[in-house]
What we know:
Elements: H1 2-38, H2 47-69, H3 77-81, H4 84-119, H5 131-154, H6 156-166
Amino acid sequence: MDTFKVAFDRLIYALAAMSAVSIGLYSTLIPINLVLIKFQLGNIWWLYEGVEYTLYMGAFLAAPWVLQRGAHVRVDVLLMSLSKPAAARLERVIDLFGSIICLVLFVYGVRATISEFQDGTIPDKVLQINNWYMMAVFSFSFLLLAIEFLLRSSRSEDSIVAEEEATPETGF
């Protein structure tokens, strides 16, 4: 199980890093494109739709890393008012419920991916990427989120203490 956790952690870290790199890349390419347009040297025709696709993929694929870090949006009022053992039990229930929801969305995404693949649908855009690729990203991300919720559930008492200590470091 430890080998799986290490491999999983590396995978979600790599996905989050790729998302960060893509944001950095586009924050460089957008001003370059504006300069090209200003000086009538052409443009990067695929840039804005590339940003759209990449933000979609990055948000979904980096979500398990955000969940693991405890940097997601959550309201801790109830957890903070309970004793640590009761908060840990509630956290486990919430994590198991989150995992179930993510598994349902994973199944929905797989069905939608198969349907999009069979239909061969392509968006009406300049940069055309088959819809099934986007649905595959959706499906894969919810599978990763379900796994992360299950891992959180197995370490919920430790995670409550760690998140209480890390609260000043997360967020803005």
